[in-house]
Amino acid sequence: MNQQCAVYPGSFDPPTNGHLDILLRATQLFPKVIVAVTDNQNKNPSFTLEERLTMLRTTTSKMHNIKVDSFSGLLVDYVQQSRASVIIRGLRAVSDFEYEFQMALMNRRLNRSVITVFLMPDESYTYLSSSVVREVARHGGSLRGLVHPSVEKKLKKLYRIPSHPIG
Ligand code: COA
What we know:
Blueprint (H helix, E strand, L loop, with lengths): L1 E9 L6 H13 L2 E7 L10 H11 L6 E6 L3 H7 L2 E7 L3 H17 L4 E5 L10 H9 L10 H10 L9
Parallel strand pairs: 1-2, 1-4, 2-3, 4-5
The structure holds coenzyme A.
């Protein structure tokens, strides 16, 4: 397996600046990073897989050595098929730890040659999540600085919020 290639998996429903922060840090460590969007319907995503892929492609267009892809099934199988060896996950707060620890150990059990690397985003993003972003957007709040402008546009369309409020 290729120690030079890392996979950054997630739902990205939608991608936030916190995700982009982690991705940027990952590109400083690995020559190639694959952003892998899960097509798992269990989370009942607000955006289709195609929409999430498009948002990620747009927001990462200026970043180098990044591929945006989707996967189904086990993450470790996708990592192996991609000839990668590393999974990148973001740790925002202690509350993330238990879930991430469980997932990393299960992934290790499933495939011992896959290594999980945790990165911390800038502290200004520690409270950020896709569902918080959706909640703010649904009620017409500002998302400036929290998501890429193209993602904010998509959210406004999803919740039918006018781009320039009247008055
Ligand atoms: N900035 C902002 N938000 C972040 C973030 C960051 N740096 N890192 C994580 N999050 C948020 C996400 O927005 C998401 O928020 P939400 O719950 O409000 O939507 C939440 O943290 C967790 O989402 P995500 O990082 O996308 O992970 P996930 O739990 O949705 O998906 C997979 C995790 C896809 C990696 C996992 O489900 C998986 O591997 N699935 C395949 C099956 C498998 O192999 N399972 C593993 C066996 S243990």
